[in-house]
Amino acid sequence: xxxxxxxxxxxxxxxxxxxxxxxxxxxxxxxxxxxxxxxxxxxxxxxxxxxxxxxxxxxxxxxxxxxxxxxxxxxxxxxxxxxxxxxxxxxxxxxxxxxxxxxxxxxxxxx
Amino acid sequence: xxxxxxxxxxxxxxxxxxxxxxxxxxxxxxxxxxxxxxxxxxxxxxxxxxxxxxxxxxxxxxxxxxxxxxxxxxxxxxxxxxxxxxxxxxxxxxxxxxxxxxxxxxxxxx
Lengths: 111, 110
Fold this sequence. Notes:
heterodimer, A: mainly beta, six-stranded mixed beta sheet, five-stranded antiparallel beta sheet, B: mainly beta, seven-stranded mixed beta sheet, 11 strands, globular
């Protein structure tokens, strides 16, 4: 079945770049997403990439997609303490747009 | 832009009591709507989705049900809550390729 995997924790220093990685299994996914969740809050859509793209940049965020390896990454440049949160990778199936989520990567930013 | 509203924000209910969580969408018409549950860990599990009024698909067999009485309204219900129904319930709606989430309802069953 479909599966999305992420490492559970990442710790970086303020000002450094963060790279959060994700692998997925469904090669027919149409969209791949990155969401941010702060404690006690809902999921905030950060960015998404269509499956026919290799890269998408949006201010401090860069998404890279390697379809051959089914690997997705999110790079956050100049990471700030306010970026501390859990980041979820998700793939959308091609039937109704249901999302399959990874377990989330908890990003800890140290001053 | 699309906005998802959910209420209540928090809820404490005894085992065996009924449940009704409401989700409404503004800013778009005929969205696909979803109910997810996030358990004490982190994983999000899709419970129900709907592509239109009265059309509900269930992803997992459970103690819950969903209804979509209006285009922009999605309701999650239970006749008798179980302890295992505790969790963080999130409603989401899709517009084009973008799926947005509501603020969530934290349900504690005691």
